[in-house]
Design goal:
The complex is a heterotrimer of chains A (about 70), B (about 260) and C (about 350).
Chain A: E1 4-11, H1 20-24, E2 30-36, E3 42-46, H2 57-61, E4 67-73
Antiparallel strand pairs in A: 1-4, 2-3
Chain B: E1 3-5, E2 16-18, H1 36-50, E3 57-61, E4 76-79, H2 85-95, E5 100-106, H3 107-113, H4 115-124, E6 129-134, E7 137-138, E8 144-145, H5 164-167, H6 173-178, E9 183-190, H7 194-210, E10 217-223, H8 227-230, H9 234-248, E11 252-255
Parallel strand pairs in B: 3-4, 3-5, 5-6, 6-10, 9-10
Antiparallel strand pairs in B: 7-8, 9-11
Chain C: E1 4-9, H1 10-20, E2 25-28, H2 35-44, E3 53-56, H3 60-72, E4 77-81, H4 83-98, E5 103-109, H5 125-129, E6 140-142, H6 147-164, E7 167-173, H7 174-178, E8 180-185, E9 211-212, H8 219-239, E10 243-246, E11 253-256, H9 259-274, E12 279-284, E13 286-288, H10 292-299, E14 304-308, H11 315-323, E15 329-332, H12 342-354
Parallel strand pairs in C: 2-3, 2-4, 4-5, 5-7, 6-7, 11-12, 11-14, 14-15
Antiparallel strand pairs in C: 1-8, 6-13, 10-12
Helix pairs in contact in C: 1-2, 1-6, 3-4, 9-12, 10-11
The chains are: A mainly beta (about 70), B alpha/beta (about 260), C alpha/beta (about 350).
């Protein structure tokens, strides 16, 4: 059976580090960076990229339109 | 633009599943981290984009946190005086009836200073979409009590919590306008989870499409958060909203067209 | 096309002139003594003929904000009210000035403060020419003295409003609004079909989005904008001063009066001249911009100026500023809705300047 693989792209400077994407993600793909962006926020990033299924829950929940989602069948 | 991608091989144009609409501009929104305004802007921009209405849309922004909406949504926008957006939109729609006209207001703007304009626009059945962001507080001025503040809820002007006897009870504008013959579609939604975002987007899409029918006012309340004003983290605020706001402002349709 | 002659109230003339000027929308709220404007328009139902929208708003506040919305779309829109209602509109007028929107606001003045009286007065002069609402703005103020001018100044008001992107006020009063005179009405104009490039008419691919706002959180930007407004007002002062003179050539004493008071003073000039007094009248037609320069010129040959107003003395301050101490300037006026008689004006002129 084909497996769905996904990947997110985070626009780092637009992120405000609210963590809503992280709790919206059903697979635990996202974590908050220890580093901060230009505005001083600990931005979201795909800490566990292999877990991403491209469901776009993070992007739907994102308050700032930061996340783009890609997915494909492998 | 500094971006971080998960797996580079997957990030190809043909694999794109979701990206914000270009109608949500590249300007970084002035909202606090975790504020629901950003999501409502995003899905509103998406609906306008998906329905191909950019050149036919005129929005009206309020006074409050979303006063600068015109920096974030790439459509023609008028910024109204505090509470007067429905009056402004009334004239726009009457004079340009073929355009899609929406208002965007917070609870202070719509339910306090603009109560008369809200009720009378709905009572005349102005053929506009009114978006009402209810987070139970005045955000921009620093977290004062709003007409929608819950009983017992602390704010900078109800430091011991709102007392119903002296400060009134939460004003349910959506329930009020649903009773008016002029309204066509009235619903209360939220944007705090991906599922709720999808539902709200669906509601907005419906309301935009209803405007073509010229049957009356569509009114969508979005129960939202104010992490800064509530003094919570964004994630805490969403949980608190579910537990405390939703019992007073239950989600769901209050008035649906007979189809 | 020939002008049509009719006998009308001043208020009715405004309403009919608005239709004929090709106005796109009128937004009003009842208040004495100007309710005939809204009533006339509702009866005329121009939506069926010219397509002009007429709407009774829930308040004067809503009405002026409807004007904001319509004007922001580049449409020709107007509202009308009387003094207490105009007070309510001040916030909206300030926003309209701040967003640089063209519109016409008609004030059929009654006495105040507060609920005051429903009788005519000229006590809204300060409110009209000095700002009224908050912030560094002005609006062009036209003062009709006849039913004919109430009709004519609708068209003129719109013309100036669009020329300068500014609110224009027609400052009438309850006497001119209510009285009937013959009036020549202009032929029907077509409503505009093209709109200014700044108007919110839906963002086209060919232009950036249009934003109507008076907000600028950047101090530098706001200061530049305020200066731009002042430059506009200075241009208006240079180009749009309007006034009428009556027997000023050899006058030793000058009456300055607008609107209903100017009608009274015209008679006062005749009475005074019959008594051998060389009295003239200057009637400002624009109250902002005020005919300061002309009054200053005339002052070189005058012994005194009497500002005659149905107020406790408001325009007199602008007359004083105009002559800058060259000649004595005094005020005479009645209040409470009482219209002064021509004889009273002459008696006061004599007692103030001659017998004193």
């Amino acid at each position: 059976m084909a497996k769905i693989r996904g990947s997110i792209v985070v626009n780092v400077e637009r992120c405000k580090g609210c963590e809503v994407c992280m709790v919206s993600c059903p697979t635990g793909t996202i974590a908050m960076a220890k580093e901060v962006n230009g505005k001083g926020y600990n931005y979201a990033f795909p800490a566990n990229p292999d877990l991403c299924i491209g469901c776009a829950s993070c992007a739907m929940g994102c308050l700032d339109g930061v996340i783009a989602v890609y997915k494909t069948k492998i | 633009m500094f971006e971080i991608a998960g797996i580079r091989e997957i990030v190809k144009p043909e694999n794109l599943a979701y990206r914000k609409s270009d109608l949500l501009t590249e300007n970084v929104m002035s909202y606090c981290p975790g504020c629901g305004h950003g999501t409502v802007h995003r899905i509103l921009a998406e609906v306008i984009d998906e329905l191909g209405l950019q050149s036919d849309t005129i929005g009206v922004s309020p006074v409050g946190c979303s006063v600068l909406m015109y920096n974030y949504i790439d459509v023609d926008i008028q910024q109204a005086a505090h509470g007067r957006a429905p009056a402004v939109a009334t004239a726009i729609k009457r004079l340009l009836p073929e355009k899609f006209v929406f208002t965007y207001q917070g609870d202070g703007d719509l339910a306090a200073i603009g109560t008369a304009e809200t009720i009378h626009a709905c009572n005349r059945g102005e053929n506009i979409l009114m978006l009402f962001i209810n987070n139970g507080i005045y955000g921009m001025t620093g977290g004062q009590m709003a007409p929608t503040t819950l009983v017992g809820m602390k704010s900078s002007t109800s430091p011991a919590g709102r007392i119903a006897k002296t400060m009134g009870s939460p004003l349910k504008m959506t329930d009020i306008v649903a009773t008016l013959p002029g309204t066509y579609y009235v619903t209360r939604q939220s944007v705090h989870t991906p599922a709720n975002v999808r539902k709200t987007k669906k509601a907005i899409r419906k309301a935009v499409q209803y405007q073509k029918l010229d049957r009356g006012t569509c009114f969508i309340e979005i129960v939202s958060n104010c992490p800064s004003g509530w003094k919570m983290t964004p994630v805490q605020s969403n949980k608190w909203m579910e537990e405390t706001m939703f019992p007073v402002y239950p989600l769901g349709d209050l008035k649906t067209p007979e189809e | 096309m020939e002008k049509e002659l009719r006998l009308m109230k001043g208020n009715e003339a405004v309403a009919e002139a608005a239709i004929r000027a090709g106005a796109d929308g009128y937004f009003g709220y009842p208040i004495t003594p100007q309710s005939e404007i809204l009533e006339y328009l509702m009866e005329a139902n121009p939506e069926e003929t010219t397509g002009m929208i007429v709407l009774q708003a829930e308040s004067e506040v809503a009405a002026i904000n409807m004007v904001y919305g319509g004007a922001g779309c580049g449409k020709k829109v107007l509202t009308s009210s009387s003094s207490p209602g105009i007070s309510l509109k001040q916030e909206g007028i300030s926003y309209i000035a701040g967003a640089e929107l063209p519109c016409l606001i008609v004030n059929v003045v009654r006495g105040g403060p507060g609920l005051g009286t429903i009788q005519p007065a000229q006590s809204d002069y300060f409110q009209s020419v000095k700002g009224g609402g908050h912030g560094d703005y002005k609006m062009i103020v036209l003062a009709p003295a006849s039913v004919q001018e109430m009709a004519d100044f609708v068209d003129l008001g719109f013309e100036l409003a669009f020329k300068y992107r500014t609110p224009v006020m027609m400052l009438s009063d309850g006497a001119i609004g209510q009285m009937m005179e013959k009036v020549y009405l202009s032929p029907q104009k077509k409503r505009m079909t093209t709109f200014p490039d700044w108007a919110t008419t839906g963002k086209k691919a060919t232009r950036p989005r249009n934003i109507i706002t008076s907000l600028d959180l950047e101090s530098n930007g706001q200061e530049i904008f305020i200066q731009k407004l002042q430059d506009k007002y200075n241009l208006i002062k240079e180009q749009e001063v309007r006034y009428q003179e009556f027997q000023t050539e050899d006058a030793e004493y000058l009456l300055v009066a607008y609107g209903t008071s100017a009608r009274v003073c015209q008679k006062s000039v005749q009475i005074a001249r019959a008594q051998g007094l060389r009295v003239g009248l200057l009637r400002p037609i624009t109250l902002f911009p005020f005919p300061s320069k002309r009054i200053n010129e005339l002052a070189d040959h005058l012994k005194g100026i009497l500002s005659v107003e149905m107020s406790a003395g408001q325009m007199v301050e602008d007359v004083l500023l105009s002559v800058n101490g060259k000649v004595p300037v005094r005020h005479y006026g009645r209040n409470g809705g009482i219209i002064t008689t021509p004889e009273e004006v002459v008696e006061n002129l004599k007692s103030i300047f001659i017998e004193a």
